[in-house]
Every structure is written in C-alpha cells, then in structure tokens.
Design goal:
Structural class: mainly alpha
Strand content: under 5%
Number of helices: 3
Number of domains: 1
Shape: elongated
Radius of gyration: 15 Å
Distance between the termini: 58 Å
Order of helices and strands: HHH
Largest sheet: none
Length: 70
Amino acid sequence: MSRDSASPLQRKGSLLRTVRAVAWSLIGLRKGSEYAQDLEKINPIHIIVVGLIAIFSLVLALIVLVNWIV
C-alpha cells in the first residue's frame, strides 16, 4: 500500500503540527507547500477536533474580554 493511498485514520501527524495548521487556517495565512504536506500527514479527524476546540476557546475568550471591559 502506497503512502498516498493511506486512509485518513492511518495517517500519523503530531498534535503540534495539527494545532499549527488550525491556527494558521484561522488567521488565513498558509503556504501552499505546507498545506500540501498537511494534506498528506495530518488526520482529518484531528483537524476537526482541534478546530472545534480552537473556535470554542476563541468565543470563550471574547466573552471573557467583553465582560471584563463592561
């Protein structure tokens, strides 16, 4: 089985790489070459989980900031 045809659940990607990919995606800045590497190495399920946690954390931080200001 070639590496390109590995199922998403068999991909090995570090947590740090997944967090970096999600953070850069939230900002909107990403190199094309790094995006291609992420497609090969990062598990899509990990991206979804980290993305949901990041969005939840962002919303929670904004709520805390607004309450602190008011």
